Amino acid sequence: MHLRTALKLLTLKECHGCNVVTQELAAFNTAWDGRVAEFEAQLLQQTEALNTQHTAMMATFLAEAAAKRPQRPKHSAEYLNNRKIEEKLVKQVGRAADTI
Fold first, then answer.
1. How many whole angstroms separate alpha carbon 29 and alpha carbon 40?
2. Percent of the chain as helix, strand, coil, to the nearest 5
3. Taking the CA of residue 88 as centre, how many other CA atoms within 13 Å lie in the half-sphere pointing to its CB?
4. Could you report the per-residue pLDDT of 59-100, keeping only the tens digit for each?
5. 67, 64, 68: which is closest to 56 by C-alpha?
6. Sign, Cα dihedral of 90, 94, 96, 97
7. CA distance 25 to 15
8. What residue spans define the domains of the chain?
9. Tell me: the pLDDT tens digits for 8-65?
10. CA-to-CA distance for 75 and 58, rounded, in angstroms?
């Protein structure tokens, strides 16, 4: 009979230990879920702030780019030189056609 009582006590202790572990696991899971929810809320908030900042920066950049855009194109030296050569050649061809 003494053995049976000891076995019952041991079983109750083990069962109580299982309940403690289960309670600790439930508390940990609750805390973990809270931290994950907090992280996701912060992530959403920071993402929205970053999108707002990028939109504002893009609008500022486009406004500055439009203000700095030259009204007349600035041709390169090579382009201007080629245009002079072309004009001279057209004059020469015109003169040659007049002499024929």
1. 16
2. 90, 0, 10
3. 6
4. 999 999 888 877 787 889 999 999 999 999 998 888 877 776
5. 64
6. positive
7. 15
8. 2-99
9. 666 666 666 667 778 888 999 999 999 999 999 999 999 999 999 999 999 999 999 8
10. 29
